[in-house]
From TrEMBL, chains A, B:
Main location: cytoplasm
Origin organism lineage: Bacteria, Bacillati, Actinomycetota, Actinomycetes, Propionibacteriales
Keywords, in A-Z order: Cytoplasm, Phosphate transport, Transport
Native organism: Kribbella koreensis
Domain PhoU: 16-103, 121-204
Name recorded for this polypeptide: Phosphate-specific transport system accessory protein PhoU
Length: 235, 235
């Protein structure tokens, strides 16, 4: 029975990793839908979010059952609590990917993004997708160094967002208010996806090392991750 | 020992309620800081967010200890898991309140909000504050009806946001891109605070009744709450 139990713990991690792949696909497809005004793809991403939520609920059920039936020891319990937080991260990332598609749908048949701004959004989508994949890799490999590298990728996202604001606030911005509002919200969605990826990676680091990565605390992602792991002195 | 245990469970709920009062104050003070360009108040809200995170970590520690040492039965476990989710909601709401203050700080000494738009923002801040208080009341009273009423207040928030977009997208919008971007992001922050309040109330309903409120699923708040409670058929 104990063996089956540990298999179940492994299953939960495997399921979390699968969910990151689903989210990564959603992020990439949403970005494509946005850049090419592809309404079919946008609708598919929005519809697929329900399946992601269902997958998440499935993981929650498994976690809850293990907690209730197996009286997990502290290490296992820490893993199960982290799994619950990661499910919440993944469901939220799925929502955010769907939000990107909803902007594509709102502006359809017009393209939401003017040609000159496509490269910025494309890059944001690409960085966000890479970060989600990175979080999946970290869950799979438990590679602490890869988790740390994810924070560097997140810095890229911050730079892209700063750059985006600079473009919009320039007096010569020619695209008007509607585009600016769309771009500002899209930037926020991609940034939040990235934050959640960082939070997930930090949770894994905490599980592996028992310590939080250095960068924790001050940043938005930091406070997210802070919320996600039992305090080191709390176990 | 069992008595102390149940006292500890009650303490956790009391602490969560206290945290909602802290968040509610932060939301109201941030709105005032924003509307009156009050940099001191903005800085205080931003600084106080660290204490909220610390309070959240304290609750997490207590929850984790109870889980590890007391082998809670299903009902208690469900409550503890919900408490973890509510802590995450509250920490996130605190971050969002701080984001509001950061916009006030960014534009200081200029006021971030033009006079004609102050009433919209004031109302958003007021609705958000009421909803946070409402979530606190629901935790305290476990009143299912009050939780349901919170969903109606959330509809007000949605209307305010739609109205805000209508103003900004009007060709005669006179405030330029910078203000539009600030307003769009502020609207998003207040909306998310409201979503978290609804999620918290739903969690309490689920704890009390064993069933999720009807409105769950489709909306953004719905998917948040969906992530937050163990699936009804999962326990």
């Amino acid at each position: 029975m104990r063996d089956t139990y540990h298999e179940q713990l492994d299953d939960i991690l495997a399921e979390l990793e699968r969910m990151t792949r689903t989210v990564s696909t959603a992020v990439r497809r949403s970005t494509t839908a946005l850049l090419t005004a592809d309404i079919r793809q946008a609708e598919e991403v929005i519809a697929a979010d329900i399946q992601l939520d269902a997958a998440g609920e499935g993981v929650e059920e498994k976690v809850f059952e293990l907690m209730a039936r197996q009286a997990p020891v502290a290490n296992e319990l820490r893993m199960l609590v982290a799994a619950l937080r990661m499910v919440a991260d993944l469901e939220r990332m799925g929502d955010l990917a769907a939000h990107v598609s909803k902007i594509a749908r709102l502006r359809y048949p017009a393209p939401a993004i003017p040609d000159e701004l496509k490269s910025v959004i494309e890059e944001m989508g690409s960085v966000a997708g890479r970060m989600v994949d990175g979080a999946g890799d970290v869950i799979k490999t438990r590679d602490v160094e890869a988790a740390t590298k994810l924070e560097t990728v997140d810095d890229e996202m911050d730079k892209l967002r700063t750059n985006q604001f600079r473009l919009m606030m320039d007096d010569s911005w020619p695209h008007g208010v509607e585009v600016a509002v769309d771009i500002a919200l899209l930037g926020r969605y991609y940034e939040r996806i990235a934050d959640h990826a960082v939070s997930m990676a930090r949770r894994v680091v905490y599980l592996v090392t028992g310590e939080l990565p250095v960068a924790i605390g001050g940043t938005a992602a930091g406070s997210g991750a802070g919320a996600s792991t039992p305090s080191p002195n709390g176990n």
